[in-house]
Automatic annotation (TrEMBL):
InterPro entries: bHLH_dom, HLH_DNA-bd_sf, TAL-like. Keywords: Developmental protein, Differentiation, DNA-binding, Nucleus, Transcription, Transcription regulation. It comes from the Eukaryota. This is Helix-loop-helix protein 1. Residues 52-65 have a biased composition (Basic and acidic residues). GO terms for biological process: cell differentiation; central nervous system development; positive regulation of transcription by RNA polymerase II. The keyword Iron-sulfur does not apply. The gene is NHLH1.
Length: 133
């Protein structure tokens, strides 16, 4: 099991670096030009829409609300969609490999995932029975 920052819950207040780096997509921290809230950006952090909260507005939010806002960014959604696509491809590949091991007539018959699992269970039971005899 892989751990990431979302799986560990600690009750410590956010540090200055966590506020800047962890919430840069939500308006926390300064942009590459050094313009943060109150800086040359006219009071708005880089990448914020008018009326969107700046860093000071994020500090009073609960950890869960900050996480929810961070996950609402386009960058996060794109990365999540990519990870999910890779996971689903690996899942489908594993089913295809399992399918190749199962005898059916015709051999290239298309089976659903549940049919593959049920057929695998029956085939394993059959092989156990053959070994016991």
């Amino acid at each position: 099991m892989m751990l990431n920052s979302d799986t560990v819950e600690l009750d410590i207040p956010p540090t200055h670096s966590e506020t800047e780096s962890g919430f840069s997509d939500c308006g926390g921290g300064a942009g590459p030009d050094g313009a943060g809230p109150g800086g040359p950006g006219g009071g708005q952090a880089r990448g914020l829409e008018p009326g969107e909260p700046g860093r000071k507005d994020l500090q009073h939010l609960s950890r869960e609300e900050r996480r929810r806002r961070r996950r609402a960014t386009a960058k996060y959604r794109t990365a999540h969609a990519t990870r999910e696509r890779i996971r689903v491809e690996a899942f489908n590949l594993a089913f295809a490999e399992l399918r190749k091991l199962l005898p059916t007539l015709p051999p290239d018959k298309k089976l659903s995932k549940i049919e593959i699992l049920r057929l695998a269970i029956c085939y394993i039971s059959y092989l156990n029975h053959v070994l016991d005899v």
